[in-house]
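Lecture notes, continued. The same structure-token format from the folding unit now serves as the input rather than the output. Read the line below as a description of shape only.
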């Protein structure tokens, strides 16, 4: 699974390295290609891809540290004119086995004077935790590491979705600008029809009424030119971000199809997948696991076998010990037994400490933990409330947009009939050229309004989708 994650990251880097700037003509380019090129230019995605790769490496590092570890040491080396000694050691540790450690120390002494070496005080030992927090804390740490990888992956995916939302918002802005231009052109034809009407009524070009109408016509004409210029600039900028060699043509805008999810949001996006709910429940589960992992007492033991123990006249000895800590107290006991018929002395060690301050601070920490638990439960409840409000708003928005879509389609049919009739009347001489052109502008604006509605439906889908976790 982790190898697949690295493949995903490498594909993302290849995506940026290639640049994916297509050389298709604006007549054949697809919306998907434009979106891919638009996403490719976002530097934040590459930054998040690097962060995702870092979390994968951190997880690998954690796996290595929590696995089987070997530590070799020469110990302190002492060299004099006639004596050489050192104490090499080997330590094997298994953090995932209750922190079990095996240790071997082999003191070496060599004397030139006697031309011999001595091997005494060899210590073979093992230490492990019988009851405590080591294993559970390690499991919690692994879960947090896995979570950081998951969150980094989600951040990358959400940024791609954010750029997709930005893409459609920009496209909607172009459609809106186009609609505004069409509205101004409609006003321009209205002003032109008024001028033509004044001419047919016999008003001279020098009359006050005609001059006022002419000035109003000029104002609208300048407004049309300004909006056309603004629209062209926005299209050039957008086309450049989409990797198009030439600006997108206005004639293509009315033919673009936008697909949205026509499913029930409540079933498509369940509460458990809502990002706030999922995060709050994960935090609560982790806190509960941490409370359950906390043991009132920690018990550990150790055992050693010492060869040629100098404190027992070079007899082999066995040393065992046990320690218990918790509630501000610590108790340890050990026994050392010689393995020799000559040596019968058995030594024992006892240690008992108690710190009442630790007991008081532990009580305060437990109270803080109870408050943390209550706040975590409250965050879960608030997140569930947020889900209900968000999904209700999304459903209501979708219903309103679908109603608006129905109205737009009905309006488009009416304007289509008007445009067809007006063209027929114009050919028969019953309508002027301005009236015919104005009907075509109204139809085009109706088509653009349908496209804006489609984008709004798509944006509602995307803005809802981004609030939900998408992995299984």
């Amino acid at each position: 699974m982790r190898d697949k994650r690295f493949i995903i990251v490498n594909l993302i880097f290849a995506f940026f390295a290639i640049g994916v700037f297509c050389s298709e003509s604006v007549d054949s380019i697809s919306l998907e290609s434009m979106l891919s090129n638009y996403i490719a230019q976002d530097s934040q995605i590459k930054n998040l891809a690097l962060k995702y790769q870092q979390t994968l490496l951190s997880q690998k590092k954690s796996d290595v540290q929590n696995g089987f570890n070997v530590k070799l040491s020469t110990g302190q080396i002492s060299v004099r004119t006639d004596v050489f000694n050192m104490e090499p050691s080997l330590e094997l540790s298994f953090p995932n086995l209750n922190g079990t450690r095996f240790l071997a120390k082999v003191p070496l002494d060599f004397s030139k004077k006697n031309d011999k070496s001595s091997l005494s005080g060899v210590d073979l030992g093992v230490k492990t935790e019988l009851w405590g927090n080591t294993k559970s804390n390690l499991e919690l740490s692994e879960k947090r590491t896995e979570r950081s990888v998951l969150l980094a992956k989600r951040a990358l995916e959400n940024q791609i979705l954010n750029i997709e939302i930005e893409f459609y918002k920009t496209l909607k802005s172009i459609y809106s600008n186009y609609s505004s231009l069409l509205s101004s052109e409609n006003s321009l034809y209205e002003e032109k029809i008024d001028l033509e009407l004044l001419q047919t009524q016999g008003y001279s070009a020098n009359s006050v009424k005609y001059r006022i109408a002419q000035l109003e016509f000029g104002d609208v004409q300048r407004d049309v030119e300004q909006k056309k210029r603004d629209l062209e600039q926005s299209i050039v900028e957008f086309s450049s971000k989409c990797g198009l060699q030439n600006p997108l043509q206005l004639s293509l805008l009315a033919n673009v199809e936008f697909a949205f999810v026509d499913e029930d949001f409540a079933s498509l996006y369940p509460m458990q997948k809502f990002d706030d709910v999922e995060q709050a429940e994960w935090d609560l589960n982790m806190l509960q696991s941490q409370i359950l992992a906390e043991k009132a007492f920690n018990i550990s033991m150790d055992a050693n076998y010492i060869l040629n123990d100098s404190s027992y006249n070079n007899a082999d000895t066995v040393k065992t010990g046990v320690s218990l800590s918790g509630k501000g107290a610590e108790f340890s006991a050990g026994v050392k037994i010689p393995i020799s018929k000559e040596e019968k002395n058995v030594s024992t060690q006892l240690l008992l400490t108690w710190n009442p301050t630790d007991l008081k601070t532990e009580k305060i920490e437990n109270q803080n933990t109870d408050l943390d638990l209550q706040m975590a439960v409250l965050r879960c409840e608030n997140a569930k409330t947020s889900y209900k409000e968000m999904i209700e708003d999304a459903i209501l928005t979708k219903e309103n947009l679908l109603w608006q879509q129905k109205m737009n389609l009905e309006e488009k049919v009416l304007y289509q009939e008007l445009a067809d009739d007006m063209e027929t009347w114009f050919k028969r001489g019953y309508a002027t050229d301005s009236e015919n052109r104005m009907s075509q502008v109204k139809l085009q604006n109706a088509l653009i309004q349908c496209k804006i509605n489609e984008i709004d439906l798509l944006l509602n889908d995307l803005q809802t989708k981004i609030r939900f976790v998408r992995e299984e």
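Point for the exam: The first helix runs from residue 2 to 18.
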